[in-house]
Design goal:
The chain has three helices and two strands. The longest helix has 30 residues.
């Protein structure tokens, strides 16, 4: 079982922003790589997997006309997805730390 790294401050604890954001970005990167691999091996599984998350909204019109995997888009996503997750996690941790200690 793992725990969130925290620094004790008074009665409550502070989240360690950078380590938490780093860990979350690594998990997001692993998920991105797994999804990219799945899009190469079994693209129809992606529609089957994500369809229930959208509560009946059809993903069929979103299927690409050509290939599912495009190397340029893969590289852009490889950089921007974990980067965006890192920024969002750091912002959430910073807000938590600010609001938890009012």
């Amino acid at each position: 079982m793992s725990t969130v790294s925290r620094e004790a401050v008074g009665a409550s604890a502070r989240l360690a922003t950078v380590p938490l954001a780093n860990a979350t970005a690594v998990v997001a990167l692993a998920a991105y790589l797994a999804c990219a691999a799945l899009s190469v091996v079994a693209p129809s599984v992606l529609v089957w997997f994500f369809q229930p998350w959208l509560h009946g909204l059809s993903l069929e019109p979103l299927r690409p006309a050509g290939t599912w995997f495009r190397p340029g888009e893969f590289v852009v996503g490889l950089i921007t997805f974990p980067g965006t997750v890192w920024l969002a996690t750091a912002a959430i941790a910073a807000l938590y730390n600010a609001w938890a200690h009012r």
